[in-house]
Amino acid sequence: MQTTLESPPAWKVYLSRWGWGLGTALVLLVLVLWNYAQNPTSTEAVLASTVRQSTPLVLGALCGLWGERAAVINIGIEGQMLLAAFIGFLVNVWTGNLFLAVVAGVLTGAVLGALLAFMSVTLKIDQIIGGTVINILALGLTGYFYQQGLTTHGKLQAIPLGALAKIPLIGPVFFDNPPITYLTILLVFFSHYLLFYTRWGLRTRAVGEHPRAADTLGVDVYLMRYANVIFGGAIAGLAGAFLTLEAVGSFERAMTNGRGFVALAVMIFGKWTPLGSWGAALLFGFATAMQTQLQFAGLNIPHQFIGMLPYLLTIIVLAGFVGRARPPAADGVPYEKE
Asked: What angle do CA 241, 88, 283 make, to 5 degrees?
């Protein structure tokens, strides 16, 4: 007697994939609304800080996502962000033009992305080593050429979006931000649309899952990998520009402080999707914002333990989800054209 296996209903598959995340979001929403009713000013401050803290993380995650969707692992996000932050800072010092400084940061990230693509796609060296080279290069260059006492010409200021910025709770959090923060949110939705609803996205995913089949159908595997890694590098450059031109307004050695590596955890937690990565970045941003809030609260806890909160969350996420999340099938494997 032959036994047939029936596929589970679509709603069960949906709940199994998204139920945990939606449940967590619902619990957090209830807690936020309850706290807002008790202390609206504090709640708005924490949520606004969450969005700011998550911005470089989601940009770094998008950088890694575009590379890995095309089967190129990018360990060099940290270095791309750091060198882009430094170059954007220098252009701001020399020209006083914040727009040119942001463009310089984005171009720096794109150039480093091209370097990674050259090492990974053309030379076919180990992609982990290639990313590590970029991290060491960025750390060495910024440490050697940085000079204290350089005078900047201000930083990007918040742009309230009219009546939207006055909406209780939501307005100060999402509609009263500087331009790179707005651009980041747009990039999340643009990346989602580009990846899942366009021919470019289909080809990118095909190259990441089965490059030989894509090549057979006429897709240029090398071109797709180069283009996606460079595009991802430009996004990482925007994250670096955010740090010096929007968040801080100055530069310090090693100021990325591990954000590039946390962005990789965010990407994995988000299952290599733009919207999932944004949700994960907001979770990490919330942990960082709460860390700051707890320090201001004057709790009798050593500040080192409070400072561990975001990184402890990183370890928990990696330990709990790396085994469950499936990367693109060809991720990290060089392609040899026959």
From this structure: 15
| 232: Cα within 13 Å, side-chain hemisphere | 38
pLDDT band at 77 (very low <50, low <70, confident <90, very high): very high
- CATH of residue 290: 1.10.3470.10
Q: How far apart are the first and last CA of the chain?
A: 46
Q: Does residue 328 form part of some domain?
A: no
Q: What does the alpha-carbon distance between residue 160 and residue 156 come to, in Å, rounded to a whole number? A: 13
pLDDT attached to residue 286? 85
Q: Is 191 helix (H, G, I), strand (E, B) or coil?
A: helix
State residue 2's pLDDT score: 47
Decide if 336 is inside a domain.
no
Per-residue CA distances from 324 to 17, 41, 149 (Å) = 11, 39, 48
The answer to whether position 155 is within a domain reads no
Over residues 160-180, the pLDDT tens digits come to: 998 999 888 888 899 999 999
Report pLDDT digits (tens) over 202-229: 999 999 999 999 999 999 999 999 999 9
Radius of gyration of the chain (CA): 21
String of DSSP letters for 282-334: HHHHHHHHHHHHHHHTT-SS-HHHHHTHHHHHHHHHHHHHTTT----TTTT--
The whole-angstrom separation of Cα 121 and Cα 101 is 30
* Number of domains observed in the structure of the chain: 1
Q: Is 3 a residue whose pLDDT tops 60?
A: no
Instruction: Tell me whether residue 22 is in a domain.
Output: no
Categorize the per-residue pLDDT at 4 as very low, low, confident or very high, splitting at 50, 70 and 90: very low
Whole-prediction pTM: 0.88
Q: Find all residues with CB under 8 Å of 241, minimum gap 6, and list them.
A: 84, 85, 88, 101, 102, 104, 105, 106, 180
